[in-house]
Amino acid sequence: MSNEVMGLKSRDDGQAVALQSVLAQGQLQGLMLRMKLRQVYRNTTGDNLECVYTFPLAWGSVLLGMAVELNGKRMTGTVVEKKEAETTYEKAIQSGDLPVMLERSGKDLYTANLGNILPGDEVVIELEYAQLLKLEGGMLRLSLPTTIAPRYGDEHSQGGLAPHQTAAASPLAEYRLHVSLDIANPLAQGTITSPSHGVQRVKHQNGVMVKLQNKAWLDRDFVLTIHGLKDMVFAMASADATQPGQYTLLTSATAHWDAANTAPAKLRMKVLVDGSGSMQGDSNEQARDALDWLFHQLENDDEVSMTRFGSHPLHVLPRLQRCTESYQRRLRSEARNIKAELGGTEMDRALEAVIRIRHEDERPVEAASILLITDGEVWNIENIVATVRQSGHRLFALGVGSAPAESLLRELAEVSGGACEMVSPSQSMQQAVARLLERMRHACAIQCSMESDAELIYQSPSPRKITPGDTIHQWAQVGSKPVAAPSQRWALSDKTLTRRAENLMGDDEGILPRLCAAQRLLDTTDSERQRELAMQSVVSG
């Protein structure tokens, strides 16, 4: 399935405004990524245009700001309630000004409305966002979304988008992409590659500058991976502009301990494979490779079922059965024959059906691991997340293809205590499945807390389970400026460990408190508190 490039389109007829250039610049310090995206457009029509600009952000990122330049004149915005913004926008349209209204239009999807672009006008749209990354199994992966993957379902009734926010653009348009990313040590000492684009690496005193090597187009997401990263600990502090005198702290540590004496858990695994039309080609081949390798790793005591889905779920092997030799042969046979012929991507119905799967003796299954293999985007994301959150099952997602549904899959893994792997067509399926399998078999219960020389006012909830090689991010709000790096204290089943960074990095831009506010927003159900934190996450530091 083709992807729609993000861009600027006429609100009335969906006509694309001519894109001149795209420049993405980023800095990776510790595990905090800061990206700036700059796009230049020109109105080559003979009409005054009111336009809509729809763009995606990476999962878990916070939009730091948006600026618009009209013929060299720069305009920045302020944060107000939605109704006030709509009223102000309409008044500016009527008076002939160039207003800009930005709103969140979907999960990690934003829409900006721009009015009164005259013939010949040059418009520059500049976005800036920050994202907290994770090391997983000694590897870090970052993705720059440059496409809006088509989502199955109704974008208006299920996605909440207004009609003018979904104007079509040509997926075949060849828009140039320029990327530069400055990676600071010690991450820069790893092996840096891109499975999506050719890149060149230039070392400097503090790290490595990565740039695109050849011509690149906005036809796929830009993906960069860093391998060979092992036992790392980072700490960062920033003054909180919304709470005078207070500081936000972040510690990030890679989980490592001696697990040699811990027996691997047996699997209760419900395999769910996307068989919709979007899986044709590379994605379907990736799914076959993943299942073929996985089904060769099963033990006799493991219990597995298999379901495919598209417009409807199809239970290929409808019960959790022990992996006898004959059953494993059947699993491998079914994996070799999967096809992408089942229509649309009704993921919610499929997950509900899989959660209801029982043992072969008809006993209900209170908790199991769901292995979901898909490339598809859907609109009813909130319903799908709620379904998984309430199930008691842990979801392990394997995103395949050149622009998989990263936001949805990482969200499902996060709320269920599972894990997520995104695999581009040129990457190893075996390594990705092996990491997920390791997480299913060797997860350990943990209680994590932070210790600091400054008074702790708040610290984030501890993860419930962790697997060796995962990253634990721990947030805190403190009442004074810390002197030394804080430490993480882990209480595992039979031991207590302490991890501490050598240095405390500073964040002079005030980005850290905004990332923390966005994370705390997910941990509260109080509507007034959610509003306060939402405003805090968009306030400039």
What distinguishing features does this structure have?
Immunoglobulin-like, 541 residues, alpha+beta, Rossmann fold, eight-stranded mixed β-sheet, 36 strands, six-stranded mixed β-sheet
Tell me the strand order in the biggest sheet: 7-6-10-4-3-15-18-17
First-last Cα distance: 41 Å
Average pLDDT, all residues: 82
Number of helices: 9
Shape: globular
Task: Reconstruct the topology from this structure.
Elements lengths: L3 E2 L1 E4 L7 E12 L2 E11 L6 E8 L5 E9 L2 E4 L5 H14 L4 E7 L2 E9 L4 E11 L2 E2 L2 E6 L2 E2 L2 E2 L25 E7 L6 E3 L5 E6 L2 E6 L9 E6 L5 E7 L7 E8 L13 E7 L7 H14 L7 E7 L3 E10 L2 H12 L10 H9 L13 E6 L2 E2 L2 H9 L4 E7 L5 H11 L2 E5 L5 H14 L1 E2 L1 E5 L4 E4 L5 E2 L4 E8 L8 E5 L4 E5 L4 E2 L4 H12 L4 H12 L3
Q: What is the gist of this entry?
A:
Helices cover 20% and strands 39% of the residues. The strands form nine sheets. An eight-stranded mixed β-sheet has the order 7-6-10-4-3-15-18-17. Strands 24-23-22-25-27-28 form a six-stranded mixed β-sheet, with helices on both faces. The protein has a five-stranded mixed β-sheet with strand order 31-33-21-20-36, covered by helices on one side.
Can you describe what's shown?
It is a single chain. The chain is α+β, with helices and mostly antiparallel strands and 541 residues long. The protein has an eight-stranded mixed β-sheet. The protein has a six-stranded mixed β-sheet with strand order 24-23-22-25-27-28, sandwiched between helices. It is globular. The protein is 20% helix and 39% strand. The longest helix has 14 residues, at 82-95. The model is unreliable at 1-5 and 148-173 (pLDDT under 50). Helix 4 runs parallel beside helix 5 and helix 5 (381-389) runs parallel beside helix 6.
